[in-house]
């Protein structure tokens, strides 16, 4: 396929140049459902990518492309396909076609894509052309889709089984077709903005998987091996990936070399050598280092921004786990659906947030209202009553990661960082009252790392019913 000169930064063009496939989910649907000899109507045909596909499948194709530049490329790409150089509309006459920022964004709506050129073209109602009712329609005319359909009542109200592939980013036209004309939604192609609807035929809705960009931790590989299991943020990531894959979603994981996370793509954005260079050899007697702006952190963030921007599509989710350590990545990729998972800390920032407990959610709202300047960042702060889509999902675990035994030993176990605010002294006192031993496994703090928690660690080790066993893999 040949395109007009100049880079087209829309997602389908980039993907097509890399893979040879235009709008992959839409392409797959057409290949699966368009039959030889059927009539395919391509409205807003651009340079003919989907027209060529339909023609190759043996369908009769009629295309509409009012832009003279695009039409010239269409005729070179698809010499055997009829292309009509008129703009379909709900009226007949001469209209202005406004040039978009790219060749695929020309529109009858002024300022729709902020282009600066105008081409006068003829508009016509589809119903006045006597071309019949197609079996499948692709409609992508940059905001004018409804007026095209208003001039195509034969298509809107047909009794014939028909499929409509329509660009409708906000679902408004989809709702209009469902509510007023009896169409049914079959599936979506979020990356292309397409909605696929049918009428007068059996319909089973197929949910489109969500593409999730899942961030790992910058200071450790995310693995259940010893070098990763002590990092609670990493364990959340591993289990979240399992859940997302089980639900059928597409997971792109960005992490440190040595990570073992269920995903469709593993994008390595840091190395074990870089961790050694930043922190020295990993030591299972010490807390994982976590310093904002160090070499491991900035390298991880910079590489994530670059790699995500190369892969992101409209409708993707960005899942972050590490509070404001991940905020520079979110700022650098600007994915609207940015969600923080498993918030058990106070440095949260994302527009959508999942807390580990109701207490953590309420504490965060109270803290933000009393400590943070809501004037400078009004869209990101709760202002007293929270945000509608924030929610609580308690900590999640995979039972297969634990060995069950009917035979119990006579002790209680504390597993986690050894700091007083996690309740370890409450556990110790309960065990003391019961006459039981408390085994303690986890990282303790040194005085260099945190003097208050280091004292708590020392105090705990002196208690008679406590046995410290160190790091537990």
Please describe what this structure looks like.
This protein has helices spanning 11-19, 24-33, 49-56, 68-77, 145-150, 153-156, 172-181, 226-229, 232-246, 272-279, 295-311, 327-333, 358-371, 424-434, 451-461, and strands at residues 39-43, 60-64, 82-84, 87-88, 93-98, 118-124, 136-139, 162-167, 184-189, 194-199, 211-215, 250-256, 265-270, 317-320, 337-343, 352-355, 391-392, 411-415, 437-441, 466-470. By secondary structure, the chain is α/β, with parallel strands linked by helices. Strands 3-2-1-7-8-10-9 form a seven-stranded mixed beta sheet, with helices on both faces. A seven-stranded parallel beta sheet has the order 13-12-11-14-15-16-17. It is 30% helix and 21% strand. Helix 14 links the parallel strand 18 and strand 19 (437-441). It has three domains: 11-199, Rossmann fold (3-Layer(aba) Sandwich), CATH 3.40.50; 211-392, Rossmann fold, CATH 3.40.50; 405-470, 3-Layer(aba) Sandwich (Rossmann fold).
